[in-house]
Design a protein that fits this description.
The chain has helices at about 25-35, 60-70, 105-115, 165-170, 185-190, 230-275, 290-300, 305-320, 345-355; strands at about 1-5, 15, 20-25, 40-45, 50-55, 85-95, 95-105, 120-125, 140-145, 150-155, 155-160, 175-180, 200, 325-330, 335-340, 360-370, 370-379. With about 375 residues, it is an alpha+beta fold. A five-stranded mixed sheet has the order 3-2-1-4-8. A five-stranded mixed sheet has the order 11-10-9-12-13, with no helix packed on it. Inner membrane component of the type II secretion system required for the energy-dependent secretion of extracellular factors such as proteases and toxins from the periplasm.
Length: about 375
């Protein structure tokens, strides 16, 4: 894993892919040094000096009652900025310890603007006290790393310190200390506060963070982390899915209705054919056209004008669900006895045929068991 350590104020960058930190005296120098790691994942440590952090006891029931939004207001009395102007993270450690960490949102934005210039992929943005090893219970780790004095009091609590003697004045006398790379002045300060039994030196190496991306104090905004689809696109997908479901439902309902009409028309066409040419068990919706053409070819004396009229009038009759009881052709005129649902249907048929260019006369209309029967002449 590649690690980057951001400078404080006008300090220098540090980077590492192994046991020690390598200095880059400017951002341009860092960019050149990272060219060999193009596109590689990197964990970035930002100055703990920019962090406001607190740790306190909090019963689990109260923690659940506060929720994520409520917990961040525990930090309110420790910061001069409004909580809404800060990016806040927290970690609850059973049975009743909570650590809350906040960073100004404009500081995070500044970090991200600078980091966007680097040729690596940022996977985590963590406070730099995490570059120190985790202390044992009752122990504090203090390290002078690359000229910066960092303190780590527990797994989730740490600071950046300017004055070691002043920091020690606020510590309990019974605490043990694990130190590294101290200057002579710093050794003098801690030996004046703690006994030799309380002190332990160690050799510092850059720690390997196995799950930096999942660390509770990863301040990289969710949109910058490769954690999956954002809520906005999930909402868009849900809306699109809803629209498709509605459209498919509408199309299915419309198809069902049209299929029903088509089936009724096919049945009526077969009944009409059988009425004209006699019952024939081989007649189906698929072969009625070929059977009708066959009947026409067998009738050598068929009148082509009558057939033309029938071919034009027949679809209109089927559309209106009207059955012809009797058909005859005489003196260039088609005479039909039509059976419809009502007299109004016959009148509507007459108007429709007239609008299509036929000359239509509607004769007497008489009631019947199925509706009404009327004589129609078409020319």
């Amino acid at each position: 894993m590649l690690y980057l350590w951001m400078p404080e104020a006008n300090g220098v960058w540090q980077w590492s892919n192994g046991e020690h930190w390598t200095e880059a005296d400017s951002l341009d120098a860092l960019i050149q040094a990272l060219q060999a790691f193009q596109g590689k994942d990197a964990v970035v440590f930002f100055p703990s000096r920019d962090v406001q952090i607190m740790q306190q006891t909090l019963p689990k029931a109260q923690y659940k009652q506060l929720g994520t939004d409520g917990v961040k207001y525990l930090l309110e009395e420790y910061t001069v900025l409004p909580i809404d102007a800060m990016q806040v993270a927290h970690h609850f450690q059973p049975p009743e310890q909570i650590t809350v960490l906040g960073v100004a949102k404009h500081s995070i934005e500044t970090y991200l603007h600078v980091l966007s210039l680097l040729p690596v992929k940022i996977s985590a943005l963590l406070p730099d006290f995490l570059i120190l090893p985790q202390p044992d219970v009752g122990q504090t780790v203090i390290g002078n790393i690359c000229g910066r004095l960092l303190v780590r009091e527990s797994e989730f609590l740490g600071y950046s310190v300017d004055d070691l003697a002043l920091y020690l004045d606020y510590q309990t006398a019974e605490r043990n200390y694990k130190i590294t790379n101290f200057s002579a002045e710093q050794i003098q300060s801690i030996e004046a506060f703690a006994t030799q039994e309380q002190l332990e030196s160690f050799h510092y190496v850059v720690p390997a963070l196995a799950k930096a991306k999942q660390h509770p104090f990863n301040m990289l905004p969710k949109a910058k982390q490769d954690t999956g689809i954002s809520g906005y696109w999930k909402a868009c997908a849900a809306v699109l899915l809803g629209i498709l479901i509605v459209q498919f439902s509408y199309d299915a309902l419309r198809w069902s209705k049209l299929k029903k009409v088509a089936d009724q028309t096919a049945v009526q066409a077969i009944e009409q054919y059988q009425y004209w040419f006699g019952a024939n068990s081989r007649i189906t919706e698929q072969n009625i056209q070929s059977q009708f053409e066959s009947q026409v070819r067998m009738s050598k004396n068929a009148d082509t004008q009558a057939l033309q009229l029938l071919s034009r009038v027949g679809p209109v009759l089927m559309q209106n669900q009207i059955v012809a009881n009797r058909v005859s052709f005489d003196a260039n005129m088609l005479n039909m006895e039509l059976n419809a649902n009502s007299a109004a249907t016959l009148q509507a048929l007459t108007q429709q045929l007239n609008q299509q260019g036929f000359k239509v006369e509607l004769g007497n209309i008489q009631p019947s068991a199925s509706g009404a029967v009327g004589l129609v002449k078409i020319q």
